[in-house]
């Protein structure tokens, strides 16, 4: 089975020192959704959290030797599926970001861990409980 995904927009930031994970980030950026999807942003508001699914577009290709990796915050090898490494069989990432503003097709966010130009695949509400 082949799965094909098409980005719905891109992420942009002026930040250059990007944290490795959204849970430890205060950095800011913006998601620019393709204008054809603007109506789909209705009801996203400042102050809420959103789940952003993205493509690690600059990740090096995955090879079998990367099934075990040593994350920088751990001193031991760990299975790739228990890490947030961008080097994975399907280079898909997920971040929970705080919305700071919404203007048309642009969502301003904080808590970023994506680099400038990252393709956005989907946005979902962050629901707890």
Concise overview:
The chain has 129 residues and is mostly beta strands.
How would the blueprint of this fold be written?
Layout lengths: L8 E4 L15 E6 L15 E7 L12 E2 L8 E2 L12 E12 L2 E5 L8 E7 L4
Antiparallel strand pairs: 1-2, 1-8, 2-7, 3-6, 3-8, 4-5, 6-7
Fold and architecture overview:
The chain has 129 residues and is mainly β. A six-stranded antiparallel β-barrel has the order 1-2-7-6-3-8. It has a two-stranded antiparallel sheet with strand order 4-5. The chain is built from no helices and eight strands. It has one domain (9-125): YaeB-like (Elongation Factor Tu (Ef-tu), domain 3, Beta Barrel). The chain has strands at residues 9-12, 28-33, 49-55, 68-69, 78-79, 92-103, 106-110, 119-125. Helix content is 0%, strand content 35%. The chain starts with 8 loop residues before the first strand and ends with a strand.
Q: What is the CA-based Rg, rounded?
A: 15 Å
End-to-end gap = 34 Å
Please, what is the CATH homologous superfamily? YaeB-like
- Count up the helices: 0
Which sequence of strands runs across the widest sheet?
1-2-7-6-3-8
Compute the average pLDDT: 90
Instruction: Tell me the fraction of residues in β-strands, as a range.
Output: 25-35%
Q: Secondary-structure element sequence?
A: EEEEEEEE
Structural class: mainly beta
The best one-word shape is: globular
């Amino acid at each position: 089975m082949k799965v094909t995904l098409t980005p719905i927009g891109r992420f942009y930031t002026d930040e250059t020192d990007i944290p490795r994970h959204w849970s430890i980030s205060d950095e800011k950026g913006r998601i620019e959704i393709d204008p054809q999807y603007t109506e789909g942003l209705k009801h996203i508001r400042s102050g809420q959290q959103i789940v952003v699914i993205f493509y690690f577009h600059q990740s090096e290709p995955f090879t079998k030797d990367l099934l075990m990796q040593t994350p920088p915050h751990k001193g031991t090898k760990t299975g790739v599926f228990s890490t947030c490494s961008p080097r994975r069989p399907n280079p898909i990432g997920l971040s929970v970001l705080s919305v700071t503003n919404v203007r048309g097709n642009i969502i301003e966010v904080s808590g970023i861990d994506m680099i400038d130009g990252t393709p956005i695949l989907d946005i979902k509400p962050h629901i707890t409980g």
